[in-house]
Automatic annotation (TrEMBL), chain A:
InterPro entries linked: ABC_transp_permease
Subcellular location: Cell membrane
Membrane topology: Multi-pass membrane protein
Pfam families from the UniProt entry: BPD_transp_2
Domain of life: Bacteria
Organism: Chelativorans salis
Record keywords: Cell inner membrane, Cell membrane, Membrane, Transmembrane, Transmembrane helix, Transport
Transmembrane regions: 20-39, 60-80, 86-115, 127-148, 168-191, 221-244, 250-269, 276-295, 301-319
PANTHER family given in the database record: ABC TRANSPORTER PERMEASE PROTEIN YPHD-RELATED, ABC TRANSPORTER PERMEASE PROTEIN YPHD-RELATED-RELATED
Protein name per its UniProtKB record: ABC transporter permease
Amino acid sequence: MSAYTERSQGSPWADFLSEQAQVLSIAFFFLLCVVYFAATTDTFLTLGNLLNVIRQAAPILIVAVAMTFVIITGGIDLSVGSQVALVNAVAAIVLSAGLPWPMAVVAMLCFGALIGLGQGWFVAYQGIPAFIVTLAGLSMLRGVALYLTQGYSIPIQGVPGFFALGRGQLLGIPLPALIAIAVAILGYVVITATRYGRQVVAVGSNMEAARRVGMPARWTIASVYVVSGVASALAGLLIAARLGSGSSNAAVGFELQVIAAVVLGGTSLMGGRGTIVGTILGALTIAVIGNGLILMHISPFFTQIVTGAIILIAIWLNTRIFTANFRFGFGKGK
Amino acid sequence: MKPRISLRNIRKNFGSLQALRGVDLDIFPGECLGLVGDNAAGKSTLTKIISGTYIPDDGTIHLDGEPVRFSGPADARRRNIEMVFQDLSLCDHIDVAGNLFLGREITKGPFLDRKTMLSEARKMLDALEIRIPRLGRKVAQLSGGQRQAIAIARAASFDPKVLIMDEPTSALAVAEVEAVLSLINRVKATGVSVILITHRLQDLFRVCDRIAVMYEGTKVAERSIVETDLEDLVKLIVGEKDEK
């Protein structure tokens, strides 16, 4: 009679690798881009250029962190670009009307929260798919911005405190970059270590299970749109402060860059799975590619083609190669 | 003895479908009630009403003699009614410990207290003799039996007054079924009222004190376990069809 023995356990290290495969692969991709541009251009690895990259990436990064929350719940927010434009325009209008800038900043963040709450209400409490609600938002909010400004760019003058938000530096690091880093750290802590973060993941993983254990499932879904509204408002303010004007034509195509960054970072569009670290790497990868191609004097029109191709290739690598049951070829065995 | 939970004339419609057509049921403390019936007889609907997942269209529920109306599953859970759902209701993307504490996370200040949850989760599983080596693993990576064991541990570990189990043994292996049955006997002994839905009729005779038979949204029979046998139960479940 043979003895009863325990089956040996796979090493925790292997478990860790398969769970973090998505983040590791985008990290690898990011480093590849950095090395490539460092080798092919003289200016890429200079401090000035790197600071410039993170300054320019700041709005995308801020909204991408919020978008990670939205996508983890299984939703999507297509309206972030239009929200940025609307806040951008309204901020310029209220500032030129003479509202003190700290008050304007707080008002704009509240305005963003309100827009998000409206969209979240339709998604969570009325059961309309997030894609539809935010597609409508994409059209309407940009429309409101255009209507308010009549399509003109509105200059902001004589508020140096506000401009510092977009142009200032602290210890040599651009202020928008510092704000983006703070937002990213906050997002990371909230999603991994707080009860609210756990609720966001639970709702995206299994909405009915979350409801049955007594989590405020609907409110959690609505709340992530408030988060993305506030983040969009913050991004809109940073852009207005950097450019010194507000325009309804700001941030066109912004939502696609943000969603690309999140998806590149390994967050699943089906909900439940996603990491802030992946999102940060995704956003930086997109920013580095855009910057590097310009430094290489490649046509800016080409950037879009390359960005799109890289998203496709990175996701392809993620789903085909960096998963546990890797197989190559076409339907041959398992 | 006063019933722990008492249902009177419970009705529930889904559109034109009459899922429950006036069900009366009493469950006493320390008792296991087996709920049997064909598919779509209304077993799951009835238990979901007790656990607050569905709100009945008509009828009354008394918990320990006091009339209650559950506003939702959270409300029922607050009153110590726990349910193991047929679909298990686990979050695949959250680890084992996180699923055990889903909805009642332990926090330290604003943050999740992962360490305490892990050690408490280990104690919970040990108490039920459930073997899951790594509690930091995502539930998606576990076997069907382990997932079911987690769902049962989650419901049984927080001092339930009423524990409802909808097909708790369907995905389990022999040893695990034995563990669940002995678990039911143990929690029964502590005064918990257990409601067990199962298609494995032989299990009923191991743990139940009474068996209620549902047919087409009504309760057609109630038998004490000593006055019935397998053959009798099968007849009650299929109804008059076999007599024709």
